[in-house]
Structures are given as C-alpha cells and as structure tokens.
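Chapter summary example.
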Amino acid sequence: MERTGPKRKRRGAQAQRRGERWHDGPPFTTALGITTPMGHVIYPQPTSPSDVDLSWMIGRTITSVGFHEPIYWSFQFGEEAHISVECPWRILKRGRTVRSSEDHKQQYGLPAPIDAAAEATKLLSAVKVTTAQLRIGTSDILVEFSEHLRLEIIPISSGYEGWQMTDPFRTEYFAQGGGQICVWRGDA
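The structure predicted for these 188 residues follows.
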C-alpha cells in the first residue's frame, strides 16, 4: 500500500527544512547518507574545521572508554556527548605515550593482556579537560587534561571515516577520509 496525502507530504517538507532528503522507500545507505529507522536518509553537509566548536569539552571528564570489535572505540563525556573512533588514538603523559589503541589485547611480557579501554577509562575519568582542538587539514582531535595528560585521536585514512562526534547540543560531526569534516544538526 502506497502512502500518500497531506501527512506524508508534510513529513517530507519538514525533512527538507531540516536539511534532510526524504526517502520514500526501503531503507538504504548512500556514500554520505545515514539511513534512520524510519527509512529516510540524512546527509551531513561539509563544513569548515574552524566551524567545529570543541569548547563544550572544557571542564568535563571522559566518563568511560569502550571497545567494540573489530576497531570501534567510544569516548563518553557522560550520557549526552561522545566521540566514536575508528582510527588510532593515544594517551600521552608529559609527552610520552602511556596507552594507545594499538596496545589493546597485547601482553608485552606482562602477566595478562592489556585492556586499553579499562586503562584509558581509569586515566581519563580522573581528570578534567583543559583545552581541546581540531587540527586543520588532518582532522586530528587533541584533548589536553589536567595532570599533564593528552588524548590524541589520529585519522590516518584517505578514504575511511576516522571519527564521529556528537556534542551535548545534538550536533554530529564526521571526519571523513582525507580530513574533510561534515556536520549534521539533529535538532534543526
């Protein structure tokens, strides 16, 4: 049964005002589109790295770091904001690497393999963010914490997304391959 009528047209018009393209059919994913459970596709729009505001991080802590096979990491800033990472990251203390995504499940002669998610949570949940910046050109995220700690998220692919970030205002940013940043505002 095909859905038509004013209600269907109104939903399409609302989606267009929010910057979405309405998809009236079975769910699918396009190269830059994200398919929602309702079957419409949102298209994040390219934006300038200088338009990405990371000031919301200052004064917050990373409450948890999670790992999901095979390469998906999540850095949670409470329940309202997070960074999802599919590229290498590292934590430095006084300029030296103390833990990285590459250390996960490595034993290095220790009694047990390293749980990088648990160790990163322990390190970062005890300190507050002092500064945060997005490196123009490479889309690296550099987050400085008290106690001389620094988190570096380092996209290395020219083709794959390195990270996705949702801020407390429901704005989503995507670091595409090669350093391009795209944005989608969920409340627009």
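To summarize the output: The chain has two domains: 6-43, 49-185.
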